[in-house]
Amino acid sequence: MGQIKVEKNVGGIEGLHVITPAVHGDNRGYFMETYNQNDMHEEGLDMVFVQDNQSCSTKGVLRGLHFQKEFPQGKLVRVIKGKVFDVAVDLRKDSKTYGKWYGVELTEENKKQFYISEGFAHGFLVLSDVAEFCYKVTDFYHPGDEGGLAWNDPAIGIEWPELVGEYKGNCEATGYTLTDGTPLNLSDKDQKWETLENTFKF
After folding, report:
1. Catalytic-residue membership of 17
2. What's the CA gap between 96 and 183, in Å, rounded?
3. Rounded to an integer, what distance in angstroms lies between the CA atom of residue 140 and that of residue 124?
4. Could you tell me the sign of the dihedral formed by the alpha carbons of 96, 14, 10, 196, in that order?
5. Catalytic pick from 102, 115, 135, 176?
6. Which of 41, 104, 133, 149 would bridge 121 by S-S if both were Cys, CB 3.0 to 4.6 A apart?
7. pLDDT in tens, 83-139
8. So what's the pLDDT on residue 2?
9. What is the mean pLDDT of the chain?
10. Using H for helix, E for strand and C for coil, what is the string for the chain?
11. Which of 22-26, 176-180, 186-190 has the lowest mean pLDDT?
12. Is residue 154 predicted with pLDDT exceeding 90?
């Protein structure tokens, strides 16, 4: 028991929690529990996960900002290789922090996890050459239920680290790079999402 440290409601946004596991290491390597239901319950986190996912992305890839409309997912995310900047945006229409965002750097070194409750848009930007990203979700993926929010909506004002470029009234990647010159890389779908004003609200 007691193998995790939880920073609750980070950024003053209810439902966002940064979790740091206890890492037991020596000159041979390390061991840690990446998930323990009892420890989560002790911290008041009673979510039930139904699926594990893993993705691999190269430097400059930005995935998001994604959500499911009718079947919203809570997500427990972490990085097992590389470094990403992970972001959640509050889309709960009755929330006092509606439209607010919080971001945290997740790396293979810091081993932090980020729990994002249902009702948020989620995305991340890859800052290392390669990043392997793992996450547990509280509902299954439902084709056709996906929604998205423009990653660069000035009304939200996400401060993506190492990213430079000028907003041109859309969420296309053209003209954006990391500070080392790596072009921003988005899927076709992620370049067509709506702004906060026009997107789905929970």
Report:
1. no
2. 36
3. 20
4. negative
5. 135
6. 149
7. 999 999 999 999 999 999 999 999 999 999 999 999 999 999 999 999 999 999 999
8. 73
9. 96
10. CCCEEEECCHHHCCCEEEEEECEEEECCEEEECCCCHHHHHHCCCCCCCCEEEEEEEECCEEEEEEEECCCCCCEEEEEEECEEEEEEEECCCCCCCCCCEEEEEEECCCCCEEEECCCEEEEEEECCCEEEEEEEECCCCCCCCEEEECCCCCCCCCCCCCEECCCCCCCCCCCCEECCCCECECCCHHHCCECHHHCCCC
11. 22-26
12. yes
Q: What is the largest CA-CA distance in the chain?
A: 53
Q: Does the model's pTM come out above 0.90?
A: yes
Q: CA-to-CA distance for 132 and 140, rounded, in angstroms?
A: 21
User: Which distant-in-sequence residues (6+ apart) come within 8 Å of 49 by Cβ?
Assistant: 35, 76, 136, 137, 138
Mean pLDDT over 166-177 rounds to 96
pLDDT score for 94: 95
The two structure tokens encoding residue 13: 């946004």
Catalytic residue among 66, 102, 115, 122: 66
Task: State both tokens at 21.
Answer: 């596991």
Q: Is 141 a residue of the active site?
A: no
The token pair at 147 is 């929604």
